[in-house]
Amino acid sequence: MLSSVNKICLFVCFLFLLACSKKASVAAEIVEEITPENPTPTPPSSEPVGDTPNILFIIADDMGLDATPRYGVGNNLPAMPTLTSWMDNGIRFTNVWTNPVCSPTRAAILTGKYGYRTGVLNPEEAGNLGTNETILHRLLNESSSNPYATSIIGKWHLSGRNTADRPIEMGAGYYAGILTGGVDSYSNWSFTQNGATTTSNAYITTKLTDLAIDWIGNQEQPWLCWLAYTAPHSPIHLPPQDLHTRGALPDDQASINENPLPYYLAMIESLDTEMGRLVSTLSSSTLENTLIVFLGDNGSPRNVIQAPYSNTQGKGSLYQGGIHVPMVMSGYGVERVGETEDALITSVDLFSTFLTITGNTQHERHDSQNFLPLLTSSGGTTRNFSYTEYLADRPNQSGYTLRNSSYKLIVFDNGNQALYNLENDPYESTNLMNATLSSSAQAEYNALTAEAARIRQ
């Protein structure tokens, strides 16, 4: 039998356990009362789903139709398995216009406005985008319904060399790249990031790709990655051997100057290689939720442009070789697979289209037209006229141009005009203004002149 002392000890232990049990029960009740019905969620996935697609927008610098596979122009084309895979799984657009040079094209996409409205008409004295302009990135960053993470990686070229903070000031969530129009060397260049400029010795096409991979990998909300490569902009050179298929070309400057085309094509191939490396880092779910857009910012340089264009009809001209560029779209929202689209589109239309696909439909679209319906069905028309312009130091190159489905009018600042029937003369060999216009050509001329007056009023 237990002694009296043992009984007392057992009784005390029983009371202690009973008290602990009641405290635990009360604590559980208190926790239950203060715990909300919807506890704090886990951090969001970096792979947004549903109606908030990512946008990967890639700009090639100085790459026209004659240097792009599957456009039927040019006899010596680069191997571009990445771009052609996007064509196979998306849409190749065949009637896209940009400006003849880089800065006005970029400003138009960022603002949705023609250059005569923003003052950005060339890369030199008329190449600064005013801080009073509201750019696409700010609209997406500050959206009340679908806020996006945004970046500009690569070439900016819309303000002076000493404006390292300008892309961020204007609304880009992140900026890293070059402020100017180009570099003196692809392996020794001024790199700006977070408002500070240093010297980079990394091959720039690879470096920009690395920056895009890193930035995308850190996102936890829908994103717009504006990736503006410098390739294949000058200086024309031989890229690293593992980035192209052109073989062991001599790399001395005399050889490059004598025949720059194979080196230019090697630079394009290096761009394609790096684009492929970038998308290979995206998970399948991220890739499915990403709209990929590839665009050439203007035509090919005149020292490498290929027939049937003449060397006076390339970059920096209002002729087709200077403004008619490749554009390919693939991925999220693109239901047409392996198709071509002939509708008239200008690069300014990307502003409205990007806003629409991200659910930001309340903003003014200015000169930009939404062509999003073309991603799902053919036969639609977003605009009846395309327009672009250029301010050059030579009045016989400076001016504006517009076209409809068949005819194109160029009005130069020196007073000269040119009219072409693009259906019969796609490479502009016969200026109809040099003879008496037929009644049908006169009607087209009148319609184009009236539309130009409306646009430029």
Quick synopsis:
The chain contains 13 helices and 15 strands. With 457 residues, the chain is of the alpha/beta class.
Task: Describe the protein.
The chain is an alpha/beta fold. The protein folds into two domains: 54-390, Alkaline Phosphatase, subunit A (3-Layer(aba) Sandwich), CATH 3.40.720; 399-455, no CATH class. Helices cover 30% and strands 18% of the residues. The chain contains 13 helices and 15 strands. The chain has helices spanning 4-34, 81-88, 102-111, 115-118, 136-141, 166-169, 204-217, 253-258, 261-280, 284-288, 320-323, 349-357, 439-455; strands at residues 54-60, 90-97, 149-155, 175-178, 189-193, 196-200, 223-228, 290-296, 324-331, 339-341, 345-346, 386-390, 399-403, 407-412, 417-421. Strands 1, 2, 3, 4, 5, 6, 7, 8, 9, 10 and 11 form an eleven-stranded mixed β-sheet that branches. It has a four-stranded antiparallel β-sheet with strand order 12-13-14-15, with helices on one face. Strand 13 and strand 14 form a beta hairpin. Helix 7 runs parallel beside helix 9 (261-280). The termini are far apart. The model is unreliable at 1-50 (pLDDT under 50).
Furnish the topology, listing elements before pairings.
Blueprint: H1 4-34, E1 54-60, H2 81-88, E2 90-97, H3 102-111, H4 115-118, H5 136-141, E3 149-155, H6 166-169, E4 175-178, E5 189-193, E6 196-200, H7 204-217, E7 223-228, H8 253-258, H9 261-280, H10 284-288, E8 290-296, H11 320-323, E9 324-331, E10 339-341, E11 345-346, H12 349-357, E12 386-390, E13 399-403, E14 407-412, E15 417-421, H13 439-455
Parallel strand pairs: 1-7, 1-8, 2-10, 2-11, 3-4, 3-7
Antiparallel strand pairs: 2-9, 4-5, 5-6, 8-9, 12-13, 13-14, 14-15
Helix pairs in contact: 7-9
